[in-house]
Amino acid sequence: MRIYREGDEGPEIHDIQRRLASVGMTVPAPELGRFGPATTHAVRAFQERRNLRVDGLVGPDTWGQLVEAGFRPGDRTLYLHAPPMRGDDVLDLQHKLNALGFDAGKEDGVHRRATDRAVREFQRNVGEVPDGVVGLHTLEILERMRPIEGAPGRSLVREAEELRAMRSSLPGQTVAIDPGGAPGAGAPDAALALAQVFADHLATAGAKPVLLRAAGDDPTPSERARIANELGAALCVSLLVDADPDRATPACSFFGSAATHSPAGEHLARLILEALEREFGVPGRTERLTVAMLRETRMPAVQVEPSTAPGGVADPIFTARLARSITLGVERFFRDRPSG
To answer: Which H/E stretch holds residue 217?
Structure first.
């Protein structure tokens, strides 16, 4: 989709502003239909609230979550559907089911088979017909069960236990590589170049790397996540290059919202960040994000934003150092289990 930013005008901007207003971020009347400073401020506030990249741009991730934020519990009947239903009503359902001990899978706001299985299990447990259909009656029963707010859900606990018990090694593992990019910054080509070198390093280590896009392709983040899922990849590493041309420190992100996160993704992000810090001698950070490449992938996934080299990622020596460091982090993920 097109990326909307400050200076744009038209009915699309008015729609964005209407959706912002529906979640409590009203833009003053003189700016309606025009993407001005107040709209940028509202978009950034929405992105911060949703653990999205705070850049003031409305791209696929921000637009998708603006749409999803408009669905509240009880607004519609939820059930397994193709394509899957998405929205904050699905997210609320997943959270309540997980809090009650029914494993609805990752709390991502996408109604897939794991959520459907959890709904049917819940319905059987309360003596209802296990048809997987979530209408007002099922929601009322869920509310009466009083899910404990703030308690770790079954899905999060299961993933943490699986991570501690995992014993494997990198050779033979399929690793999905997402060459991401920043709109208009020329980053997709730089990310693809880094992805290709990273793939070479992984192949040398015995892994089976697969790039989620080729030169000239521009699939949406959700499409790339779907491809990674269909591959049955063990890991997904998304590379975001030159999103911030002045970035001095590396960042590694994993799926996480205010309510939940991916323990495996967090562990992978920390290991890759440690390798980057050792290689380049600068401290970095890990952070939680709900972008599609982290939210919609079913395997442990990270988004890596390396620091910017003086000569850019086009510098082959710098690119090789990046790729080697990320590969070392991936190798450690399969070799080292987190303590505690």
So the answer is: none
Residues 15-73 have pLDDT tens digits of 999 999 999 999 999 999 999 999 999 999 999 999 999 999 999 999 999 999 999 99
pLDDT digits (tens, 9 = 90+) for 72-111: 999 999 999 999 999 999 999 999 999 898 999 899 999 9
Identify the H or E element spanning 175.
strand 174-179
pTM: 0.88
Res 182: pLDDT: 47
| Pairing relationship of beta strands 251-255 and 301-305 according to DSSP bridges | antiparallel
Residue 315's Cα: distance from chain center in Å? Answer: 29
* Low-confidence residues of the chain: pLDDT under 70: 150-153, 167, 181-188, 242-247, 309-314, 337-340
Q: For residues 149-178, b (16+ Cβ closer than 10 Å) or e, as one string? A: eeeebbbbeebbeebeeeeeebeebbbbbb
Please, what is the end-to-end C-alpha distance for the chain in angstroms?
43
Query: Greatest CA separation found in the chain?
Result: 65
Sign, CA torsion 261/263/268/269: positive
Which stretches of the chain are DSSP H helices? 11-22, 37-49, 60-68, 88-99, 113-125, 136-144, 154-165, 187-204, 221-231, 263-280, 292-295, 316-335
Q: Which two tokens stand for residue 249?
A: 């420190």
Alpha-carbon gap, residue 338 to 155, rounded angstroms: 18
The rounded Cα 294 to chain-centroid distance in angstroms is 2
182: left (phi over 0), alpha (psi -120 to 50) or beta: beta
Q: In whole angstroms, what is the distance from residue 226 CA to residue 220 CA?
A: 10
